[in-house]
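re: ur question from earlier - yeah i can do the single chain one, its not a big deal. heres the input i used so u can compare w yours
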Amino acid sequence: MAAGLVQYTLGRKNLGDEAGIVPNPLPASRRLLVVGTAVIAIAAIVVLVLTGVITPENLSDRTVAIICVAAVAYFAVILTSNKITTVERSRVFSFIPMFIASAVFFSLYQQQFTVITIYTDERLNRNIFGWEMPVSWVNSVNPVFIVLLAPVIAAVWFKLGSRQPSSPIKFAVGTGLIGLGFLLFLPLSGGGANSTPLLAMIGILFVITIAELLLSPVGLSLSTKLAPKAFRSQMVALNFLSVALGTALSGSLAKYYSPAHETSYFGVVGGAAIVIGLLLALLSPVIRKLMAGVH
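and the output i got, formated as tokens:
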């Protein structure tokens, strides 16, 4: 990130005069209102925590509800605005199914830090020539794969050029692949302690990484391409809101996992993701039409 900021600082002079223009800036007359709203929101959260309405046990569920309300409000504000054109409104509508797919994807992906960590502790054989690998090291497998595979995926898209799959298809394949990653746990389920080979876990994380590289960077890019001119920042915020929703959902889903029921758990969440991926693929012609020329 530091290297990226340095690159941007040195190269932004080549971006033109518009690089320094903030679209739809917050006017000075509304700053006090925004600050007041933020203070009230923080105070409300403090009160809800102190009164026991929000607890560690229900935090993820409450967060899911809040993010859902915020997402609906964001989409409603953009879609009903008189600052956007008919084409821009169509493009915002096209982003809704991708928003849902992104949330579903991250509800599984973020379980690397909940369910998969528990599975690693209780099921994975971490013994390597007499040395036991720490549980936390498994969380490094995915970042290593990302560093190694991101240039490969980028090179593939560059090579394919206009022949590469559309964004909805990439989303569909990414969502389906992470579902497949969870289904790969099924042949390993029901075993005892240290019953899952380390190579099997690495293979599952490889599939999950490919899924991430098909969806995550595409979502960020797509949100900027589909954004109305007056709501560029808000569309990027919606993309990150889908990540937040998926992350909160991953916590809610993790409560249903237990070693005794892991077969049904992996089967249901993995199968649901595959179904949603297939639905997105079937709807891709309609979505592409709504995207109005954006690939």
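Residues 112 and 139 are 7 Å apart (CA to CA). not sure if urs matches, ping me
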